[in-house]
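Bench notes, afternoon.
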Amino acid sequence: MLFDIRTIVGSLLSIYGVVLLVTGLVHNTAAEQAKTGGWNVNLWSGIGLVVVGLAFIAWVLLRPVEELASTPPADPETPLDPEGIAPAK
């Protein structure tokens, strides 16, 4: 689960989102609001990134990766060919 790409992407998005949230809450000047038409862009993009990052983390926790078996289990009902390699046809 640690090296699943969803964990890495979700963690990075969440970290960047928290940084933008803090920046939006602490450093919201009138000059910056004038540039963006009165919107606190850092705050809103931070909220969006945190939500998407947490969705990725929830996806990892709710649908973990299942490891595939290296060889499929043998079906005792399927007869093998005389060499024992493949099912007989």
